[in-house]
Amino acid sequence: MSRIGIALALLLPALLEAQSSRSFLVTHATVIDGGGGPPIRAAVRVTDGRIAAIGDLAPRPGEQVVDAHDLALAPGFIDNHSHHDGALHDQPDALGAVSQGITTIVVGQDGFSNYPLREYFKALEAAPAAVNVASYAGHNTIRDLVLGSDFRREASGEEVGRMRLLLRQELAAGALGLSSGLEYDPGIYSSRSEVLALAQTASVAGGRYISHIRSEDRNFWDAIDEIITIGREAKLPVQISHIKLAMRPLWGHADSLVALLDAARREGIQITADIYPYPYWHSTLTVLFPKRDFTDRAEAEIAVNQVSTPQGLRLGTYRPNPEFAGLTLAEIAPKLGMDSVSALIELVRRAEAMRAEGMDDVENVIGTSMTEPDIERLLQWSEMSFCTDGELDGTHPRGFGSYPRLLGRYVRERGVLSLPEAVRRATGLAAEHVGISDRGRIQAGQMADLVLFDPAAIIDRATTDDPHALSVGIVTVWVNGEVVFTEGRTTGRHPGMVLRRGGTAR
Question: Which helix (H) or strand (E) holds 423?
C-alpha cells in the first residue's frame, strides 16, 4: 500500500469521529504555516472551528486525535480568481475545488458577479457549500444593468453615476471591491475614465480592484498602464487577473513586465497579480477579435498566427456543430473546406447567429498562447498569488488540477519555488491580496481551513481530454474545522461561510 493509502486507512476513523467533537488534535504534522518560513514538526489543535494552538501538544482527556504521519499540513488554499461558483448550487460538495486543497473561492470575476450580492449571500448562508465564498462586484454586470442592450459605446456621466450607486449597494452587501473584464462585452466599450470612477467608489469604501485587463495580447502594455494608472489615481490595491503574455511578440518579455510592476510598487502603487499554471487559456472565440468585427480577416490572421495557432485553438463546446467539440481549428478547417483563417471567421459567424437568437453558452475555446519560461518567471514574482480561473463543470483542466500542478510540477519537479514559498503564495499572500484577515495562516485564532497533503506525491491528473480527473496527493481538507474531502472523495459536509469585506459571517 502507498504512503497515502496507509495514511488514509489510519486517518479515516479518527477524522469521522472528530466531526462529533468540538475539539480535535492533528499530531505528527509537518506544519507549513503559510508565512513562508521553514516547516516545523508540530501538533495543531482545533476548537470550535478555529486553530487553538500549535506546538508540542498532548491530547486532552476525550479529545479526538488525527495522526498526520509526518505529511504536510498547510492552510487551505485560497483561489484568488475562481469560477467554481457557476455550478455550486447544484454541486455544493465542490469536488473540483476541495480535491485540490482549495477551501476558499473568490468569485465575481472578469466583471461578472451574482446580482444583487445581498440576496446571493443570503442564499449561500441558507444552503452553504463545502467551501467559503467571497465575491467582487462586477463592472460588466453593473454596466449591463444601466446600459442594457445599448452598450456598444462609452457611458454618459449620468450613467456612470448610476453605476456608482449600484456599486455602493454591492459594496455595502460585502463585496471585496470591483472586478472588471475589459476584453468582454459590455466592458470592452467602456472608457478608462468610467472604470477609474468606479474604482474610486470602491476605494472610498475600503475595497479593491481586480481586472481581466483590456488586452492580454495585441494591446498588452497599454492595458498594464491602465491598471497601474487606476491604482495610482484611485489609491486602492489593484490586481491583474490570471496574468499572461499571450501572444508570440510578447514571449520572453516576462522580465520587462516584472520590472514595470516592481517600479509601480516602488512608487507606492499596491499592484499584485495572480496566475494559473497552464500555457493555455479558456474563453470565447470573440476575444480573438478585440474590435468586435468578426469579418475582419486581418484580425483573424493575427489570432491564428500570432495569438495562437490552428493546432492551439481547441473548441471546448460548440452548440452550432456539437461534433466540433474537442477538435482543434486545424482539424475543423478541412471539414469546412476552408483554410484556418476562413474557418475561424465561419465558426464565429455561426456562434453569433445563435447568440442573436438569445441562446447562451454557445461556444468556448481553449487557446495555447503562453510559454513555460514566461510562466516560470512570473510565478517567481514576489507579489504573485495563485488561482484556478476554473469551473466545477468546465472543459479546462485548471478547474481540477491547478494547485497540485503547481506543487507537483513547478515546485517538486522543476524547483521554480520552494515548497514553503509556494504554500505562502497559495495561502497567506492570497489572503492578503483579497483582504481576508482570519484565514491563510496556521496561527492561533485563525479559522481552521487546512489541507493535509503529501509533497512527494502531489500531482495533477486533469487534461484537456479528461478535465475532471482528480489529482493525487491531497489527503484531507478541512473547512472551518470540518472535513470536506478525504480518502479521495467528498464527505457531504458543507461548512463553508460567506466572507464579506471586513469580516466573516455564516
Answer: helix 419-426
- What's the whole-model pTM score? 0.94
Query: Which amino acid is located at 427 in the chain?
Result: T
Q: What would the grid cell of residue 367 be? A: 487557446
What is d(CA 488, CA 468) in angstroms, rounded to the nearest whole number? 13
Contact 442, 426 (CB under 8 A): no
| Sequence-separated (6 or more) residues with CB below 8 Å from residue 141 | 111, 112, 113, 115
Give me the count of residues in the chain: 506
Classify residue 149 by burial, with Cβ atoms within 10 Å: 0-12, 13-18, 19+. Answer: exposed
Grouping H, G, I as helix, E, B as strand and the rest as coil, residue 332 is helix
Number of H helices, E strands in the chain: 15, 23
Residue 367 sits at φ, ψ, to 5 deg, of -115, 125
Helical spans, DSSP H, in 128-253: 139-147, 157-172, 192-204, 220-234
Give CA separation, 500 vs 29, 146, 223, in Å: 31, 25, 29
Residue pair 132/150 in contact (Cβ under 8 Å)? The answer is no
Cβ-based neighbour number of residue 145 at 10 Å: 13
Please enumerate in sequence order all residues whose Cβ is within 8 A of that of 366, keeping only pairs 6 or more positions apart, or say none. Answer: 280, 281, 282, 313, 314, 315, 316, 395, 396, 464
Q: 214: which DSSP letter?
A: S
Cα(115)–Cα(118) distance, integer angstroms: 8
Tens of pLDDT, residue by residue over 436-451, are: 999 999 999 999 999 9
DSSP SS3 for 84: helix
Which residues does the chain have with pLDDT short of 70? 1-21, 503-506
